[in-house]
Amino acid sequence: MSLIHHPLGFHFDNSFVRLGEAFSRPVMPTAVSGPSLIVFNEALAYQLGGKPYSADYLSCFSGNALPEGAKPISQVYAGHQFGSFNPQLGDGRAVLLGEVLSPRGKRFDLQLKGAGITPFSRGGDGRAALGPVLREYLMSEAMHALGVPTTRALAAVTTGEQVWRERAFPGAILTRIASSHIRIGTFEYFARKGARNEVKVLADHVITRHYPECLSASNPYLALFDCVADAQAQLVAKWMSLGFVHGVMNTDNASICGQTIDYGPCAFVDAFSESASFSSIDTGGRYAYGRQGSIIQWNLARFAECLLYLFDDDINRAVSLAERRLADFPALFDRYWYALMSDKLGLSKGAPDATTDLCANLVKDLLMLMERGSADFTLSFRCLSLGLKSGDFTPFEALFSDLEVVEVRHWVVRWKEALLLMGLVDREIAENMLNVNPSIIPRNHQVEKALAEALEAYDSKSDEQVFPYFNKMIKALNTPYCIEHDGGLLAASPLNGGAGYRTFCGT
Q1: Residue 361, annotated ligand binder?
Q2: Which residue among 56, 160, 467, 493 is least packed, with the fewest CB closer than 10 Å?
Q3: pTM of the complete model
Q4: Is 69 a known ligand-binding residue?
Q5: Is 312 a catalytic residue?
Q6: Where are the domains of the chain?
Q7: Helix or strand or coil: residue 408?
C-alpha cells in the first residue's frame, strides 16, 4: 500500500537510486501507531529548504507518510567488524527517503533510522529504542557545534510502540541528514563479489558527488583514494583533539565523505588515557582512543584493495601505488594531529610547521603528564587557556595528582618560553585557545542523566513528552566554547574521572 506524500518543501533528486538495483532495494517505512514529536531541528530544516514545522513533518518522520519526491530505499553494504569480514550487512533498520538539494545546491541524504524491517534486517525488528535515538541526536549535534564533520539530526519522534532488547523500551525514530551514507563497506560489498563494473560505477558516483576535483586528475581513482584518506585523517585527528572515542570503527561505519557516522557506543574521555575504551563489545580495546589513527589506516587499506583494478591494469603496479600511499598515511595523520594540538596550545600561529619538534614534544609531554596525573582531558586544555588569560594556573595544576604538580609547573614554563620564542602575545593567544578548547562537551554522565530522565518521563505516560534536561543539554552544547559555561554543571568532570563507564550499541 502506497503512503500519502506530503509537500515539506524539500527538493529531491535521487541519484543513488539511479545507479541501479544492485546498490539498494526499494522499501517503505513501516507505519507506527502513536507518533509524537520529541525534538525538531528547525534551523537545519531551513538550511535544507524545508517549510516551517507542521504535523506533516511528524507524519513523514514517523514513517506514516512520505515527503513529496521521496524514493525510499535501503542501501546494501558489507564490512569488516572488529577485523572480521561480513559479506552482507546493509541498512537493517534505516530507510533512505531520498536526496535533498538545498537552496545552495548542496546534496544531502534524508534518512529515517528505526523505521522498520528492511530487506537487510537479518531477523531484526528494524526499530530503534528511545535512548539510542536521543543519544545520537545529542551527540551528532554537539559534534557539529564543535566543528567536527558529522551526520546531523533533523528530528526525533517516539512511535507509541515498544521495542524489545533485553527488556521493553519505548520505540523512537531518528531523522538523519548526511552528505551521503556511502561507506568503505559499500565498496567492499561489490569488490568481494568480484563485481568490478559496480565498483567502478560506485567510484564514479562518489567522485561526481563528493570529490569532483578528481575528474581532472591523471589517475582519477588514485586521486579518489587520496581524497578519502585525507578526509579520514582530518576527521580522526579532530576526534582525538577533542578526546572523542568513536567505539566502533568498522569499515561499514567509515563514511566515504569523511563524516562521523553512527554514534552507538561512542564516548568522550574524562580522565585522560591513551587506552580509553568504553564500548561493551570492544573487549580487546581495538578501537581505543590512542589506536584510532592506526585503525583508520587499516580501514583505508581495505578501501585500497577495492580500488586496485581501477588504480592500474597491472596489478603489481596497482599494489605498489596503494602501498606507497598507505605508508605515507601516518605522516599525513600526524600533520593534522599536531596542527590541531598546536592550535589547542596556542602555538600554531607562530610555528612555520605545526609538527616541529618543539610543538610535538610539548604535546607529547603534556599528554603523558595528563595520563599519569589522571587529569581531565577537556578541562586541562580549557584551564590552560583560562590560565594564560588570567595569569593564574592554579586551576590547571589542581587537575593533576600531587605527584605531578612540580613537573606540570615545569611544563608550563617550557610552554610559555615557546610562546615567547614565537613572538606570541599571551592575551591574544589565550583568546585563540578559548575558541578551540571547549568549555563543555557531551559529558558521559550528563548524557546518561538526560537519557534516564527521558525514559522516566516517557514511562510516566504524561500527555506531553517534555525532556527538560535533554533540551537543556542540546541548547548549551550548541555553544560549546562560550565562557559562560565555565565552572557550570555541564562543564564539570565526573567525581571518579569516568572510571568504569561503559557504552552499548543499542541495536
Answers
A1: no
A2: 160
A3: 0.95
A4: no
A5: no
A6: 5-184, 191-343, 345-434
A7: helix
